[in-house]
Amino acid sequence: MREAFTDDEIRGLWRKILTDRSVEISRLNDPESRENTIHIKYEEMDELNRDFALNFLRAPEEYIRLLKEELNENFLSEGYKSRKGRRLNISISSSLPDLKREIRDLRSADLNTFLQIEGIVKRVSEVVPTLTMAAFRCSYCKNVDLYPVTGSKLIPPSTCSICGKEKGTTEFKFLPDKSIYMDTQIIEVQERPELLRGVSQPAKLSVHLEDEICGRLNPGDRITINGILKGKQKMVNGSPSNQFDVYLDAMYVEKESSEYEEVEIDEADVDAIKKAASDPDIYQKLVASVAPTIYAMEIVKEAVIFQLFGGVRKLFEDGTYVRGDIHILLFGDPGTAKSQILKYAITLAPKSVYSSGKGASAAGLTAAAVKDEFSEGRWSLEAGTLVLADGGLAAVDELDKMSREDSSALHESMEQQTITISKAGINATLMSRCALLAAANPKFGRYDESEPFTAQTDFPPTLLSRFDLIFIIVDRPGKNDVEMSNYILKVHSDGEKLAGGVQVEKSEFKPYFDREFLKKYIVYARKYCFPVLSPGAKEKISKFYVEKRASSRQGTVAITPRQLEALIRLSEASARIRLSDRITEEDVERGMRLMESFLSQTTLVNGIPDIDIILTGYPSKDRKNLLSLSEIIRKIHDENGGKDVSMKQIMDEARGAGMNPEQVERNLKLLRDRGQLIEPRSGFYRLVRT
Q: What is the pTM assigned to this prediction?
């Protein structure tokens, strides 16, 4: 490779490239135009002169300086130079994989070089105007001239460029209205989580945007950026340090246009996918491909497979939106492999983000407006887990530990699949079109099968009702203990052999399909398969819904339209697995089996299905007792002239209404927990007025 070019040679090569840009340059020269950018592809430079292109990568700022000189001297007319607010931007892009670098691999040798990175937008600051050319009037000669602004401080010129008077013998007045500005914005980009291997935290990089590429990105966007890696000197106690923070000075930004661009599928893959989809045993083989080292849990593994394939997202002509993503909650005892299921699922999903309900940042699970050093004291919008997982799977462990803010924001995110932020002048709606696979523990440590499911969690009913499937996973001693222990021992035995370099033949813990094939299978199905309900499937779903509703007894409700929609999504996922454009009765039956498992585990009260447990947090009977007890306390309170009501008075009245002492005490506790009742002194109660 030729090591260096002279300035004249570089300008001559730029001249050849610019000669083919008459349309762009004519727009720049139009006095009425607002166009400020010349777009050049790196591939053009490479085709013109390979050594020229390679040298540009090593010294991009010097090459761009000479490009601007060539433009100003030989291509830009007085029309451009007379424009108010003129400035010259150079956009250089490339699709060559050779220029791509991983954020975590950036080193000091990369400083001041041109490169390309890919990632997800984690945070965006406000767009603010920044001075590039400051107009000053000399008090001596009264002339106005423009002076370039370097650095973050505005410093008056030392000498008038017109009359030559120096600072001290004349004054310079700053004229904001005659100065030239450009839009600036800072974003933070992080590595794509699904591409990480053996690393828990994705690396991040600040990116500085200017002019036309500002304001186009939102948290959660997946982008490719071309730019120059630069360093900003750190300050320690007000003094310059010998260390630098790196950032990318962006020259070109491209948003990912497709949800699954990074997954490449060739003809051989398509043939293999179609062959697998036509296999009568495909469902069993898919289940055998999910966490085979975890004992049993076939119904949960099948549900996860259905979640990965997903239902059909629907947008109607009136603007109504119905999600196709399936939300699943795994709830139960510690040590029951809930977390392992989550971690395995994210390795199968083409796009995925794993997080804890505790949240590792201010954005938590949803999003937040924050103010810190990142945006240099300005407000910025930071994406949380569900925004980063847009278009994929969000796996959230310890959902019971999430913040109150996340809990309220999660309602909108799970159903409308958007997150709305209105704070500090930031009004934004971020997309969170992802499936949620969550795990949570009972609030008292272990699951008590004698108590209703909702009594063992602090999740609001409005949140629980948004899950399509909820599975209770209980660590119950019994006859399966021997089989489970043998299974776990066999897993460890095979693992020990593999660690020692011994090949295990016919291992029962090897997934039937490998992960890379499954990713391609899922992507292909989601991109090209949009099944429609057959008449038989419609009839079967309708019959299931009507019969469930008819089974409601004693004021209970067995099922609601939300479960009907969930069943449709599950049936769509089943058809997608077969790559079928029709949803059959068999697809509905598979969805019904998953739905029945969920309902039988969470909504049965004395053998009677009661969906109110999920929708309101209480069985229908308890809800009626709560209302009755509230009326009793209110009646006694009014009869007492507004005095607090004693426990004895409540017990006497409640007994006449058919409630036993245990029911009264339990319902008093429920009213207190809901914030509807207070106990100002021991044994005396008062309703909270609303």
A: 0.86
